[in-house]
Amino acid sequence: MEQIRAIRAVIEPQMVIEGAGVRLLRSIAPRVSNEYDPFLLFDHFAFNDPREGPIAGFPTHPHRGIETVTYMLEGNVRHRDSLGNMGIIGPGDVQWMTSGRGILHEEMPRRGPGGVIYGFQLWVNLPAALKMSRPRYQEVRADTIPVIEQGGIRVRVVAGTYAGITGPVTEIAADPLYMDISLQPGSLFEHPVARGHTTLIYLFQGEVRVGGNTISAVKMLHFEDGDILRIEGGDQPARFMAFAGAPFKEPIVPYGPFVMNTREEIQQALIDLRNGTFVQEER
């Protein structure tokens, strides 16, 4: 008999300051305990207050051993990196960056016409065998992300498959599901998720009901194991990000923008930065 996933924990996002003074709501962060394996970090950035002043963003910084996923709702992020890539991630766009053995990049947010920046960044771990792989990007424009609407449910599929439709982000080691879901009051979202896969949702608008519990935004929900993710619409329209993935079950050592498997690998990353060998020329 198929089992509905119950809530394991309700996580209250905390305000943090990152980059050059950027305020973020952070639900999870890299920790040695690695309880959300393969997911490492989830940040919600919402610059809605003019008193915040100019947004300095995230000046040039390194990454190694992880994948960073930027998903924009409003405003944009201009990015460029040590490999010569540059571009703009606008409303509805996704950038799935696999840092692999090392990349230096900057991300500079800009408010949209309404004076708002709204979006998310997710970090996904890489298994030991791929931590020193070649960096790569999957840039996904809004109009290429499939949208399925039925029965008061609207789903944008970034990665994984919903209702037989597969998202454009592929070939990710964690075999992830990543979707943007809107629910009208009284509607019911159900989706099979492979047993053993870590499953979370980030509710950023409205309210939902899960297993008889009413949850109001803004919250992160971490689910127990099971076969089916079931979310009911509450009294207010809801919108949430849903993500799931296969855990690697490897030890991790996080250190700032690096997540490796051993302390020695972290030390090597710092040596490479000092020696100017962190970024390798592509052949």
TrEMBL record:
Q: Tell me where in this chain the Pirin N-terminal domain is found.
A: 31-124
Q: Where does Fe cation bind?
A: H61, H63, H105, E107
Taxonomic superkingdom: Bacteria
Ranges for the Pirin C-terminal domain?
Answer: 178-278
Q: What keywords would UniProt list here?
A: Iron, Metal-binding
SUPFAM superfamilies in the cross-refs = RmlC-like cupins
Q: Name one GO molecular function term.
A: metal ion binding
- Kindly provide the name given to this protein in its UniProt entry: Pirin family protein
